[in-house]
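Good morning C.,

I know you're traveling, so I'll keep this short. The sequence:
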Amino acid sequence: MRTLVLFNYDWDQVGFARNAAFYPFDEAGFDLFSFPSNAQLAWFDMTRFVNRLAKQAKRRGWTAVVSNHEQFGALAAALLAERMGWAGTSVAAVLACQHKLYARQVLAQVCPSANCEFAPLNTAYGESIPPGLSYPAFVKPVKAAFSVLARTVNNRDELQTHTRFGWWELWVIRHLVEPFERIVRARLPQAGSAHKLLLEQPMPGAQYNLDGFVFDGEVQMIGVVDAVHYPGTQAFMRFEFPGSLSQVLQQRALDVARQFLNAVGFTHGLFNMEFFYDAATDRLGVIEFNPRMASQFSDLYLRVLGIDLHHMALALAHNIDPVSLPWRAPTAGSAASFVYRSFQPEAHILQPTPAQQSALQLAFADALLFCFPKGASEIARDFKWLGSYRYGIVHLAAADARQLRLDCEAASALLGWPAPYADHPNAEPGKAAPSNLADAPKAPAPVPPKRVAVGVPELAEQ
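The tokens, ready to paste straight into the viewer:
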């Protein structure tokens, strides 16, 4: 029952570690967000990577492989599972989900009511944008992750600026896409090249995430998480569970997911469907399908439902039905992943001191804190590619949503950061964050410990 975990970083590092006693594992892959590990991007080839792992499998005692890494891991795991005859998501299904243009084409056939108008931008980076396009338009790469280069453009000039990059940026983009491109050319040629951008009609409404799994071809829902944005932006402010979407609408979203997943041959594995729902028009619109777990939410489900998505991922990798897994006792009625961002490129963001981090852990023993200190050049790149600088994330849980907000405000004050709520005095984009603890309100009485806080140095954008 030894498992190979590919590209095991960030939330996955926490989630798989808590299951290591029952599912021992080895790791392979590199960290895209830290040097010198990410230097391996220069020579990374998906086929060579999988071939090398296949040669090691018998000697290392691996009987399954799993990965929730969007850029390379999910596809590499599918290829290796296919090669070794292990349980896993089919290669064709992973490619169909990750090739955003092809996924739109499939959705247009099987569930057009949940789709939007779309078209490929048949222009290389830096070339002149053709006239006659409709604006505003949401532009995103055909193959990408972490919301990189995804934004709304209001006119031709904005789109032209968005597609101009320096030689180093072009090198990074091409090396991120090329490993996927080679597999697509061989295994899903009808999808076309992934070295391009996709234009979509902007969809109004609130954003949600449907998480589920497929076992033996049966699609089942785990839950729906609310995705809340900073006002006037496309940047996530927090993710909340349980969400606000009614059961009727959750089932409607599940029906859409079932139609798409059946169409692309997704018969095994965890999945995540991002979508909008506009109450004014009663329209549900799919953003995209992710052929893997949304790792950032695993902790939320564990606290509120007692369901461990990382345990599910390991079970599925060993061809065990997740329905048969034991549930833990829930520890909270509401949980959230709070995302702290700066919208001012010139702002000087202070990371919490060791004393502040200790104060947070003392007041909230079950908190998870992730800090992302970056240099000026890295922050400038974040603003160009993402539109903001995400400098921290905190996970908290409480008895209900009201108490969760109070806890978040107290925890944020301890860290010297503005609480991620739209009506919080310093939470609006462009406002400065508190810089120290001098005027911070006191934290509430410590809550009973549920889980020791874990710090991760760098975290991928979800």
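Safe travels,
E.
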